[in-house]
Amino acid sequence: MTSQQVIREEVDNYKDTIYAIIGFMNLFRYDDQSKSMRNNILFFQGCKLYPKVENENAENERRNNGEYVTPDIGIVLSNDYGIIGEVKCSFPKDKTLWEKDFIQLMNYDQELTGWPTNSGTVKTHDVVLLTHLSRAVAVKKYFEENEGVTFIKPFSIIEFHRYTQLKEFFFLRLNHGNISESVNGKRLEDGISIPMNVFINVYSRYKLYDAPPPLPYLLEIIWTNIIALRAAENPKFPTLRKNQKIEVEIELNELTDLLYQQFTFYQFSSTRRELQSYYRLQPKYPKHSWVVEACKKLIESGDAIWKDESEQVVVIYFKRHTDIFDHFVKLCSKSEDKNQLKLFNEKNDD
């Protein structure tokens, strides 16, 4: 594969991870009978949960030592039952590396505190792993053949993929185990196809989760959803030609906050009073370092400059592009090609 193809595949995987998170969450949020969203479901993503211990001092010590887990998926149902889990769109070819992923899942297989409930706990919870259809059978086999990978709490593997049949759908199906919540557990046994327009019409603003996005993808979000809107405030914008530019000045802290507030799962909490204070205590994403890296890439390409030596404010030269995502894929692939060529030359020097 070329470097551009690798980048595009990475972006597709990142998007599919978000679709899997949203699709699984939506199974519990959406009531098929009333055709409306349930109000008794809490959903959270990328938030810290801590191992529960009886001794309060020991619990505080664990927190201070950074002993916590941050599941990709967290759901609390009305009967104080929860579900937490991971989404792994792909697994390494080297199966010896899979142990790390299952150790992470086994860390969820214990009593945890920090749930968005009054007590900070739930009575019981399931552990789930969502993975792409192309890897699900191999992952299931790995789990069944490794005696060291065990779960006390209900554990399930759910496979997913996108497909087109007149319209585009996102498919979820139970591959192993079962979900304790019987209604959706049964539905997942048969497989559930979710129209992609659900993601577009209802969840279109959810573009980032708590893992670093591919750089071209993050750059496209910044350019299209923030910089372009700022540029549109300029009187020159309506008549801007392809070879012309508009300067847009923005602080990096502001840029990071806008991404967090508008394009992460934090915005789900903004409509739920129960989650507002909860999310305020959680780590924010995107991390500031991700945004700095994106701005440095724009500066490297000549699309931006630092306003001053403090490097806290960036001036971006907004231009019209026929395909902004394609522009950033090509931009980032050049860096990949240069790095590979440099590595090749260094090996030859040896």
Q: Uncertain spans, ≥5 residues at pLDDT below 50?
A: 340-348
The number of distinct helices, counting runs of at least 4 residues, comes to: 12
Radius of gyration: 22 Å
The mean pLDDT is: 90
The overall number of domains is 2
Q: Describe the biggest sheet?
A: 7 strands, mixed
Strand order of the largest sheet: 3-5-6-8-9-10-11
Order of helices and strands: HEEEEHEEHEEHEEHEHHEHHHHEEH
Principal-axis shape:
globular
Helical content (DSSP H or I, runs of 4+): 40-55%
Please characterize this protein's 3D structure.
The chain has helices at 3-29, 56-64, 98-106, 133-145, 182-190, 196-201, 215-231, 252-263, 266-269, 273-280, 288-300, 324-349; strands at residues 30-31, 36-37, 42-44, 50-51, 73-76, 81-88, 112-113, 124-132, 155-165, 167-176, 192-195, 246-251, 304-306, 313-318. With 350 residues, it is of the alpha+beta class. The chain has 2 domains: 3-201, no CATH class; 215-349, no CATH class. The strands form 4 sheets. It has a 7-stranded mixed β-sheet, sandwiched between helices. The radius of gyration is 22 Å and the shape is globular. Residues 340-348 have low confidence and may be disordered.
